UniProtKB/TrEMBL annotation:
Active site: 99, 102
Gene: xylA
Main location (coarse class): cytoplasm
Positions that bind Mg(2+) 1: 230, 266, 294, 337
Annotated PANTHER family: PTHR48408, XYLOSE ISOMERASE (PTHR48408:SF1)
Protein name: Xylose isomerase
Amino acid sequence: MTEFFKGIPPIRYEGPDSGNEFAYRHYDPDEKVMGKRLEDHLRFAVAWWHSFAWPGGDPFGGQTFDRPWFGDTMELARMKADVAFELFALLGQPFFCFHDADVRPEGADFAETTRNLEEIVDYIGAKIEAGGPRLLWGTANLFTHRRFMSGAATNPDPDVFAYSAATVKTCMDATHRLGGENYVLWGGREGYETLLNTDLRRERDQAGRFLQMVVDYKHKIGFKGAILVEPKPQEPTKHQYDYDVATVYGFLQEFGLETEVKMNIEQGHAILAGHSFEHELAMAAGFGILGSIDMNRNDYQSGWDTDQFPNNVPEVALAYYEILRAGGFTTGGTNFDAKLRRQSLGPADLVLAHVGAMDVCARGLKAAARMLQDGALERAREERYAGWQSSSAKALLQGGLEACFDHVTRNALAPEPRSGGQERLENLVNRFV
């Protein structure tokens, strides 16, 4: 045991009237919602990178956090894991997520780095077997080190491509050994700064082949989890190839991967792409590729990905509404890809950030479930498109321009617009949130 969270009690559900800040007011893991435990709906995960590896910097300032496990030794990596599982025990969430670079120090060469990863994976595995939370997903950090400054899969240097692929292999092996339920590819630098030195076609082909290699290796090792791609539109590069869900789906189709790969969708990335979170979730559900989510929020006065903990129940409710409409999570879950503000230095801040976020998500999901069970939104949607249920309307889609011309002239049509009733539906949503 470490002393980092000394004096902080385990978080328990006490109900909405509790005055105890170290308690859940809305997240009761055993509460049944639509016949399913709340814990099984939400499938919460803590992100290793923001909670234990992030030093508290921003674009204009460096480290503000002074954690006792910061450093590049295996001893400190084990201390970090000890602290992580102490937080997990306090929160009681069922999952966690990590990048390789979050849990192991960089070695002098690839072989030493791989040994470091394997050793810490054994250490983490023992903690899981002792009753700790499970691994929702693992991933490789292919963006922080300077070797990835021009991308990983899309790098113009074939040696960097090979190094990236080898790193992913080690991370897939680690995820498989730990019983991870998904493996995520997050292309933090798979884009370009300028077209003056970029071959778009070549880089796109490299990215497609890289993902095909990942899927092939998944089947070779018998990994039963899902392969997930996380769309990201910009920041730090001007243009990212995995801009949004629609872009990624076209990419998957081009390389024959649309039935092999699903999406891990982040709220903050959806906003950077000019969309809402629920738009991206609905788009993924429509394509049949909704996998998992990174839950956070952006500061709407800033133009970059601030990765704050969620605190907006109406926004969260609309997101979970789309997830529930799609049938809920299978292998996926709610990962808090969120970090403290750089002025929030204390251990209690880290605990309370998660407590508040878990309560917000619980409130949002329960509101979404009530909306779905009420059915008014779905009835309004069905009524709006009811005209397409007739045989004559269906025939229009099968016919050509001449068929539409004949339909209009034969029936002397002069259609008038009908209200979409947006404000009425917004009022309806507000009754639940």
